[in-house]
Amino acid sequence: MASFVDRVVLHVSGGNGGHGCVSVKREKFKPLGGPDGGNGGNGGDVVLRVSHQTTTLLDYHHSPHRNADNGGPGMGDWRAGHSGETLVLPVPDGTVVKSRDGEVLADLVGEGTEFIAAAGGQGGLGNAALSSAKRKAPGFALLGIPGEQGDIVLELKSIADIALVGFPSAGKSSLIAAMSAARPKIADYPFTTLVPNLGVVQAGDVRFTIADVPGLIEGASEGRGLGHDFLRHVERCAAIVHVLDCGTLEADRNPLDDLDVIERELEKYAVDMSYAGVDGEATPLNERPKLVALNKTDLPDGQEMAQMVRPELERRGYRVFEVSATSHAGLRALGFAMAEIVQAARDLLETAPPKVTPTILRPRAVNKTEFTIRREERNLEPLFRVLGDKPEKWVIQTDFTNEEAIGYLADRLNRLGVENELFKVGAKPGDTVVIGEEDGVVFDWEPTMMTGAELLTGPRGTDLRLADWERPTRAEKREDYEDRKAAKAAARDELEAERRAGIWTESSRRRAAGADAAHESTRAAVASEEAAEGDWADDDNL
Q1: Segment holding 91, helix H or strand E
Q2: How far apart are CA 263 and CA 269, in angstroms?
Q3: Start and end of every OBG-type G domain (predicted)?
Q4: What gap in Å lies between CA 252 and CA 332, rounded to an integer?
Q5: Is 252 marked as a binding-site residue?
Q6: Which residues in 8-19 are b (16+ Cβ under 10 Å) and which e?
Q7: 325 annotated among ligand-binding-site residues
Q8: Which residue pairs, CB below 8 angstroms and at least 24 apart, start in 259-263?
Q9: Of 131, 42, 45, which is closest to residue 86 (Cα–Cα)?
Q10: Which residue, 191, 408, 428, 475, has fewest beta-carbon neighbours within 10 Å?
């Protein structure tokens, strides 16, 4: 089972916004007190926060799916829904956040540093917030917007000032244990260290951290060994210390060849821009200040080997220290040399002005286009795709089971200029219009729809512009007239039968007179409609 994880893929999703509420205030003696539907609450964010209490990404390795709370729906009596609680995920200091494509999104260094990995969705407005002087009692509300979701990659890069590199069993863990209070695992076989080790060293007034890279061997850049996977932990270091094994028992190895192999592997490693210096550039590992520690000089063969290779190393320009992790010989001098490099790097950070990108404030353009229309073709038919933050957001907020909400969306799109732009790009009535990408909402465009639904009278939640109303034909009107005439004749026959049966009453006489009056009114209405259409009918036909 893994006990140290320095790279995970995290699936995060912000909370969904709550839906707005449709409600009308109703009290005694005040049955229609106006709309009082509250707004929906905003969804919670997923936030990454640096915490010194966290040293590994192991928790996210076992539970990679993290979701924030959803916002609550609005309620009547102007009560807003509750906002979703923010989900705070603690991460170690030095965590780099990347996208799936490798783009660096954030470099989290320093206690309390935060990054919003997934923002929560916005809550929908209730009908109280949508009311206006013209639309006094909206019968609809806006839906909440779903929260952001996606995959991010977390990579842990330890905060170390000095990096110890070398072949397996060169004594890197032993040096850390001898120079600091760290107690890494130490054994007499290769690849003992499976995770990077950190130690804090005090040299005079300078305190710094050292870290080792386990398992760095020849071919690490092609995936051999473990070192290339852990080199990210020393990308922030100020200097590199080559730990060379002078007491190796392998006949085909010597310190100079080990140094050449490690230098080639460091050269092949590409440092990304997640950590850069004051000049905005990241220095490659092989170009940073270097020291050489000839380890295991307490052994007889080790002392002879160190004296043999030291002149060649100094000729190459290295500062060489003969040390022993067992007897602690030479460790004090090596510690002060490390502190000197670290202090110089810190002074450079303090004196050099940081590279700051100036903030440029640009006013919003008056004629800025909030959307674009792309002409496509589907099944040999034209298709017009409307893309833009506002139109796509408005579609998500619309309840398509409510006619009034659909009419409100049409008004918003018309005010934004979508209809005029469709005319310009050649759209015709009946053409297919899609708002959004592949999963967008599909409409059959009807440009003749007039705006101003708030001025039309109709039941709440309906829009008369969307009603299925067709003008009857002359044949349908004549058929309807004949049906009503037959019904009235049957009613008169029934009254006549009652009269003959001796149950004629004054109320029956009035009903008969009312039926005759309704009949004459219907005849006049039909004659008026047909006269307006230019189709004059004589009394015999009626």
Answers
A1: strand 87-91
A2: 10
A3: 160-343
A4: 31
A5: no
A6: bebebbbbbbbb
A7: yes
A8: 259/292, 259/313, 261/167, 261/217, 261/218, 262/165, 262/166, 262/167, 262/216
A9: 45
A10: 475
Rounded-to-integer distance, Cα 47 and Cα 152, Å: 12
> Is 5 flagged in the annotation as binding?
no
| Spatial contact of 20 and 41, defined as CB atoms under 8 Å apart | no
39 is in an annotated binding site: no
Return d(Cα 144, Cα 531) in angstroms, integer.
53
Dist CA 169 CA 120 (whole Å): 50
Distance CA 72, CA 18 (A): 5
User: Is 28 known as a binding-site position?
Assistant: no
Two structure tokens written together for 363: 């006013």
214 is in an annotated binding site: yes
DSSP H or E segment with residue 515? helix 506-532
- The radius of gyration of the chain from alpha carbons, rounded to an integer in Å, stands at 41
Angle, vertex CA 161, rays to CA 158 and CA 167, nearest 5: 75
Check the annotation: does 248 bind a ligand.
no
Task: State the residue for tokens 């149950």.
Answer: 503
324 labelled as ligand-binding?
A: yes
Lookup: tokens for 79: 């009560």
Q: Determine whether the annotation assigns residue 306 to a binding site.
A: no
Q: Flag whether 99 is marked binding.
A: no
pLDDT, position 145:
95
DSSP per-residue letters across 379-427? TTEEEEEEE-HHHHHHHHH--TT-HHHHHHHHHHHHHHTHHHHHHHTT-
Average pLDDT of 99-113?
Answer: 86
Is 173 annotated to bind a ligand? Reply is yes
Task: Render pLDDT for 209-236 as a digit per residue (tens, 0 to 9).
Answer: 888 777 566 655 555 555 455 666 677 7
The mean predicted confidence, pLDDT, of the chain is 79
Using N-to-C axis directions, what is the helix angle for 403-416 and 389-397, rounded to 10°?
170
Residue 114 per-residue DSSP state: E
Reported confidence tier of residue 355, pLDDT bands at 50, 70, 90: low
Provide the sign of the torsion angle of the four alpha carbons 397, 402, 408, 410, taken in this order.
positive
Q: Is the pTM of this model over 0.85?
A: no
Provide the 3-class DSSP secondary structure of residue 8: strand
- Percent of the chain at pLDDT exceeding 70: 75
Residue 192 known to bind ligand:
yes
Would the annotation count 132 as a binding residue? no
- Given a cut of 80, is residue 476 above it in pLDDT? yes
Amino acid at 438: E
326 marked as part of a ligand binding site: yes
Is 295 one of the annotated binding-site residues?
Answer: yes
